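Supplementary Note 3. Input sequence used for the single-chain structure prediction.
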Amino acid sequence: MKYIENNFYPAWLPSKYRGIIDLSELAEPTEQIVREANALMKILGINVAIYKGPNYTPKGKPNGLCSVFKSAVLQDDQLERLYKAERRLGNYVIVAYANPLQYQIKINL
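The predicted structure, written as discrete structure tokens, is reproduced below.
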């Protein structure tokens, strides 16, 4: 699994949504962020997005990832892996999304 495409878009985000979804809350995809995200997606089999930090809380924008896609249901050990990755990144917020993607709302294209 691959986290980033075209230096910005989460690779798991369907291309038809790339001009519509608000990605302004995502962290800049540094080498460390991309490495952590790729590892989490591979190990846990989920989609992830890493949001700005430190101590930033996603606001749930109407066309943001959290508003459009359902989060993944994680076991305790999976959550612990996410928390450890957040600490390694300096308290960035990592959100896990279901794989395959599940929609909370449909956006009219």
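The radius of gyration is 13 Å. Strands lie at 4-5, 9-10, 47-51, 93-97.
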